[in-house]
Amino acid sequence: MRVLFFDTHRFEQEFFLGANARFGHELEFLEARLTEQTVVLAQGAPCVCVFVNDRVNESVLRALADGGTRIVALRSAGFNHVDLKAAAKVGIKVVRVPEYSPFAVAEHATALILSLDRKIHRAFFRVREGNFSLDGLIGFDLHGRTVGLIGTGKIGRVMAKIMNGFGCRLLASDPEPDSRLIQELGLSYVDLDVLFKESDIISLHLPLTPGTRHLINAEAITKMKPGVMLINTGRGALIDTRALIGGLKSGHIGSAGLDVYEEEEGIFFEDLSGQVLQDDVLARLLTFPNVILTAHQGFLTREALTNIAETTLANITALEQGADSPNEVRPDTHVMSADTRRATKG
Ligand code: NAI
């Protein structure tokens, strides 16, 4: 089947080309993101393959259907950017990669924690400039600290195991508690307010839905322990970024490690180094010495990319052959559509 990729990056092409030796699809790679303006490029493509910052709202889906597209294959786990009701209405099937490497994301969250704690980002530049002073680089032992995990699904569970290895006390909040974590790691499920109050580090591993948008807002931040470290490898809009900036300015938030940003669309995955950054909120965030921002690279390991490529192409083959794909996402799955997300932005 002809598969047209939007928002393709060099780092992923080799994995798709390698995996396709087994599937034999006709792959075509576009750098453009899928938007209302670029959807015309998909005319006649039975399948389009999109990533997290492509726009898959009602008008784009209608245009895709009019142009003959029948499958939207997401090369991501998250599907909050897709209007699933609209997809069903126009007869487009949507498939995703529910799991590719929970280790990749949990290990990246851990890298953010260690870098912030031991000030590796500052030490790196300091030493290269011949400054071998240690002033301002004091960290804390992770051992004995309390880590609060919001979401203990596939990634949160791996994170719990890693943090347990450091000797941390584990608190968690999840509407679907995992009894294995309670038994094996001594993790305790607590109310969110208790997690906010007692955690030295809070790490977000839950999906973005209408109910979780801005879960971390000004009110939540005031409930947190002064000096708390906040880690977000989930989705940007889980955090109200303006409230986060307020918390960082007052010192209530001790540090933040962010792999996602609520306005990342059009910024992350692009080389904008020759341009003036137009997003003032992001620009302010980048001024803090105690903030590390990475551009949505939690998934970026060889293992994860291999799994993403193989699962995406297998999903397409299954639908092409008329079989049900276990990775199909349907409207009854409760998610926030791209349009709802835009309409509810503060
Ligand atoms: P998962 O579906 O296995 O786990 C999510 C967990 O969150 C579930 O246990 C669910 O019950 C829980 N949850 C739902 N609503 C909640 C709430 N209000 N409070 C607390 N917990 C809640 O998903 P997985 O694979 O662990 O991924 C988590 C998120 O990580 C994804 O939704 C995605 O947005 C993000 N992600 C980020 C990546 C990156 O590159 N930075 C890559 C892959 C995923």
If you compute it from the alpha carbons, what radius of gyration comes out, rounded to the nearest whole angstrom? 21 Å
SSE string, helix = H, strand = E?
EHEEHEHEHHEHEHEHEHEHEHEHEH
Tell me the CATH topology of the largest domain: Rossmann fold
Label the CATH architecture of the largest domain: 3-Layer(aba) Sandwich
* Number of beta-strand segments: 13
Identify low-pLDDT runs. 335-346
Question: What level of helicity do the residues show?
Answer: 25-40%
Strand order of the largest sheet: 8-7-6-9-10-11-12
What's the CATH first level of the largest domain? Alpha Beta
Task: Provide mean pLDDT, rounded.
Answer: 94
The CATH homologous superfamily name of the largest domain equals NAD(P)-binding Rossmann-like Domain
- The DSSP helix count reads 13
- Strand content is 5-15%
Number of domains: 2
State the shape: globular
Ligands and ions found: 1,4-dihydronicotinamide adenine dinucleotide
Largest sheet: 7 strands, parallel
- Structure classification: alpha/beta
Between the first and last Cα atoms, what is the distance in angstroms? 41 Å
